[in-house]
Here is the input.
Amino acid sequence: MNLSTKAIDPYTIKELLQLQVMNQLSLLTSGRNSVTEQSDNTDFASILNGLLAGMDSASPQSTAGLSAGAGLVPGQAWGPAMLSGLSAASAGALTNKFASAVKPSAYEPLIQEASRRFGVEPSVVKAVIHAESSFNANAVSGAGAKGLMQLMDATGQGLGVDNPFDPAQNIHGGTRYLSNLLSKYGGSLGTALAAYNAGPTRLDRLGIRNDQELAEKLHLLPAETQQYVRKVLALKEHYEA
Here is the structure.
């Protein structure tokens, strides 16, 4: 691929930087660090450095605000629509990298049934499963969360889940839990996702009840939760495409 470095659109640089950040966040939350992924990051850095090197004729303001954390700074005064920090195109590029590693179609009937029953969009259910377990029904986290939607034993039992490794039970329980959280927070998806990751008690203590308050207080939540909300919202866009 030939890239001209004489007149690089700053927006292109920003998109590339956001993709790199989200890729790194995905690796952090999934715990993966394969040789292929390391190579991808190296290739990306080489391309980006080449682009930046060719911007010597650009105006001094052309790269303003395009650091790796641009649009991802804790405490930034975002509106709810800015929580994802990614365009639909960027979200697609992010998730396509891992397309070969996940197989949502294997669970499509279960996801559709749970979606209809509990009123949660299929794209949201798929995004949560992707972020939580990469569609691995046997996944177990260090904290003891299990299955496709990474349910803790106590939470799962309260939702009627006897076997968290059974895809039907796990998707049913996880989607039911998401539905409960969406009802609690008046349909605010970002807030429901933050509660799914950090627990509703933590959000209640901070006085976070909707996406506007989440945007204002996101920096008060753990970094993992901040990353989780952005990642799931980006994945949701991908599954809607």
Remarks:
- The two ends are 25 Å apart (CA to CA).
